[in-house]
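seq:
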Amino acid sequence: MLKQNIVLENLSYAIGNRTLFSNISLSFGTEKTGLVGANGTGKTTLLKILVGELMSQEGAVHVNGIIGYMPQSFVINQNQTIAEVFGIDQKIMALSNINAGHGLQKDFEIIGEDWLVVERAEDILHRCKLDGIDLSRRINSLSGGQTTRVFFARLLMQQPDLLIIDEPTNNLDSESRLALYDVIQQFNGGLLIVSHDRQLLTLMDQIVEISSLGVKTYGGNYTDYDAQKQVEQEALGQDIIDAQKQLRKTQKTVQLSKERYDQRVKAGNKLRRSGSELTAFLDKQKNRAENTKSKLEQKTDKQLEAVKEKLTEAKARLEQKDLLAFELEATRVHNTKIVLDIKNLTFAYPEQTPILADFSMTVIGPKRIAIAGKNGSGKTTLLKLIMGQLMPTSGSITIGVQHYAYLDQALSVLDMHQTVLENFQRLNPDVLVTDCRLRLAIFLFAHDDALKLTSNLSGGEKMRAALACVLMGNTPPQLILLDEPTNNMDLSSIASIEQALQNYKGALLVVSHDALFLENIGVEKEIALS
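struct:
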């Protein structure tokens, strides 16, 4: 029997009156598991319960083995060395004392049986694509991607039976992502990963989905899961169609029964008026008819209730996912139009090494271009220079369209203290209030959803709101700059944003490390910054 590192029994958790999950029973062993679900369904909460950071309100968690945990936001002392982060600095010092010939008893006690600690640490650094980085190097000298890999390497030093990881590829450049993929593939223990990174999820053995309908396990990786979900949704959709047909048929049968009853009553009343039957006999018939009517109504009510319940159950099993559908003809750019022209651009902060040096590029027509490069290579800086938020040290930037927009990682175009509707009105003051609501509805902010406070929206909803405010004005932009648009989004939100950008007719300049996202929005060219 395969080892189960964590077993969940009837786990339940709620925040206030909102139930995140109820009576979950799962187990995680040596397989690689991807945990997916919409923002707010409780994925991170579940991980925190598994590692003991939160207590479940009902049920139990049984742990068997060493569990390593990498939260979405982790803290490492920037002044520590890698050896200190690994917790092996004292062992390395003891080894140094012994090798120098003046080792004390306490040095041997510190080392214990771990004589190959340095080799083990260096091997793990190698597996994490951190070759050549000395264990004495301080964290503040590493890039963000390298720091994430050091934290991951620290977990491997603990020789865990199961690794639990929350959104490990957020904010990682392509090189760091690929390195992490390799380490995850090579890891021999169990893995439980919360991620919206579809490329990472293709490395999994199974996908566990948390939704408003509960928890369900799908065998295979993300590609298999996606295919199974499509088949499942189509089948459930057919169940709804069948239930609706049955409801209409039952309603028709009920109506016919009532019509026949009314015809018999009408015929009896006609006989009463004609005096062709004895009054006593007719009264008896009338009473019998009224009893029959009462029984008929009870029967038909039960039939309708049963069919309606069946339809409700079918709808409940189908998770409703609205998709964006619209056209943005006003954003179209002519194929020969020079949208953006950058010549010999150099930028450096005062007395610093240039971040960008002698950089040139031209965007003609509705091109979709990805800006690639390692963390710190100047991708976000380039976008800020184009928008005029920073001034070049030298060189020129010419924007050839009148209307353009920039959605940064913080989505600072939105005021978090305003509602979605208030944001739209502020950014599009020439649009009538009724039109504001209609245009927001296209982006799935209908009725009360348009009155939600922006700060209370999920990451995907905030991006959708920002796109609605930018794209649905009277003069939508013909050039959009996007900086890591899929960070912190769930899978369904990413699909909605991809659909929105597929309908966009203008030019796109995108900074993203999500290769599948770039492919799905039709990026034609990649420019790498060194």
